Amino acid sequence: MIAFDLCRDAMGVILSAHLHLDAGEDAKVIEKDLGALIAKLPPESKLFRAAADVVCKLHPRGKSNEQQRLGTRDVTDADGAFAIEALGFVLRDLGWAR
Predict the structure, then answer these.
(1) Predicted confidence (pLDDT) per residue in 39-91, tens digit
(2) Which of 21, 28, 82, 90 is the most core-located residue (most Cβ within 10 A)?
């Protein structure tokens, strides 16, 4: 569960920095929620957007009240690893990691 929270926070920081530094968005973009940041990404970057969206969608599944509301299974360590890999994909796609 902690991996989802950390990945969501990290993804928000990464996307807001990318949108501000690389795409010329106003510095206020840093205040946006992850879903709003994803919506600002260009549609042609489908895999990049999808990887960010995976982290956004996995995050609530780690909370018992959301599991009940959504009718989803318990999360596993493998789900957390998937979120970490999605975060890594975004960093590599931006050219910020190898």
Answers:
(1) 999 888 899 899 999 999 887 887 888 888 888 888 888 999 999 999 999 99
(2) 90
Alpha-carbon distance 46 to 93, whole Å? Answer: 11
For the chain, state the CA radius of gyration.
14
Residue 74 gets which letter from DSSP?
Answer: P
pTM of the shown model:
0.88
Long-range contact set of residues 47-52: C-beta below 8 Å, sequence gap at least 24: 47/89, 47/93, 48/89, 48/90, 48/93, 48/94, 51/86, 51/87, 51/89, 51/90, 51/93, 52/11, 52/15, 52/86, 52/90
Are the C-beta atoms of residues 38 and 11 closer than 8 Å to each other? no
Measured between alpha carbons, how far apart are the two ends of the chain, in Å? Answer: 26
Cα–Cα distances in angstroms (integers) from residue 22 to residues 5, 62, 95, in the given order: 25, 32, 11
